[in-house]
């Protein structure tokens, strides 16, 4: 019963955009009484995402850099988020670069392949 909220948040993310969630490289899912955390390795941001349910029935999304000197200090915090906005907000911070997204990803892949 303790992880009911964490499980609900994960189900909402997957239900609204499982392919996008997978594109972030989401892993290391952990939950608590009123939150869900997971690691991401997106195109623009790598680190930890924490989604907390506020008592007024909306979410707070926080992004943390890995191995930060102050792991309690969020790089970005978004308040008053409803379940159907979560995937878009996270995707815009973690992965999506705008109208040139496909070109940006292709160029990045080419650079990485050239290094091999």
Give an account of the 3D structure.
With 116 residues, the chain is of the alpha+beta class. The protein has one domain (4-114). The protein is built from three helices and five strands; from the N terminus they run H-E-E-E-E-E-H-H. The chain has helices spanning 4-23, 86-94, 101-114; strands at residues 27-31, 35-41, 46-53, 59-64, 76-81. The protein has a five-stranded antiparallel beta sheet, covered by helices on one side.
How would you sum up this structure in a few lines?
By secondary structure, this protein is α+β, with helices and mostly antiparallel strands. The protein has helices spanning 4-23, 86-94, 101-114; strands at residues 27-31, 35-41, 46-53, 59-64, 76-81.
Element layout with pairings:
Layout: H1 4-23, E1 27-31, E2 35-41, E3 46-53, E4 59-64, E5 76-81, H2 86-94, H3 101-114
Antiparallel strand pairs: 1-2, 2-3, 3-4, 4-5
Helix content: 25-40%
Structural shape: globular
Unreliable parts: none
- Largest sheet, if any? 5 strands, antiparallel
**How large is the count of helical segments?**
3
Order of helices and strands: HEEEEEHH
